[in-house]
Design goal:
about 25% helix; 5 helices; about 180 residues; about 30% strand; 5-stranded antiparallel β-sheet
Length: about 180
């Protein structure tokens, strides 16, 4: 599959692979970014609402993004066609991700807005969230970027939905 905006269609799903959350990775992420006791210490976690060491929700999202980027970049030229994630909507952590859990990640195209098409908040153009004139200041000149809304999920080893979100990312158009 090519990695340009025009190659995507609503309903396309990317399998992003699976990752096991170990006590070591949970603690390392938490120590740096989310130092709550139930992410850092087994004894404290046993007394928490989770009852055991659990991953930060942000750890699960960061892992999803890494898996997404790896799959996207696996195609020739893929790394050059993926822009920034500009928004997350409806992010829900439904189940805790406990030490030893394996999440399987997937992303499904929910909506596509090409450059020059209407976007609900900003008729007449894709709302990139960047300042006016941003595209003309880039070294690449007049590159056009489409906006893709992905529905991202992480399911645990029992097939249960652990978290879900909708996220907007910019993808380079061929044009």
């Amino acid at each position: 599959m090519s990695r340009h905006f025009e190659d995507l269609a609503e309903g396309l799903t990317l399998d992003l692979g699976s990752v096991t959350f170990t006590p070591e990775t949970i603690k390392a992420f938490a120590a740096r970014y989310d130092p709550q006791s139930f992410h850092l210490d087994e004894a404290a976690a046993a007394q928490s609402l989770f009852g055991t060491l659990s991953a930060s929700g942000w750890h699960t999202v960061a892992t999803f993004i890494r898996c997404f980027d790896d799959v996207w970049a696996s195609e020739p030229g893929g790394a050059d066609t993926l822009g920034p994630w500009r928004a997350f909507h409806h992010l829900r952590w439904i189940l805790p991700v406990r030490a030893g859990d394996t999440l399987t990640f997937a992303a499904t195209v929910k909506a596509l807005v090409a450059a020059g098409q209407e976007s609900g908040a900003n008729p007449g153009k894709v709302d990139t969230g960047f300042p006016s004139g941003f595209a003309t200041k880039q070294k690449t000149g007049a590159t056009q970027w489409g906006q893709v809304t992905w529905h991202g999920t992480g399911r645990n080893q029992d097939g249960e939905l652990a978290y879900a979100f909708d996220g907007d990312v910019l993808v380079k158009q061929r044009g």
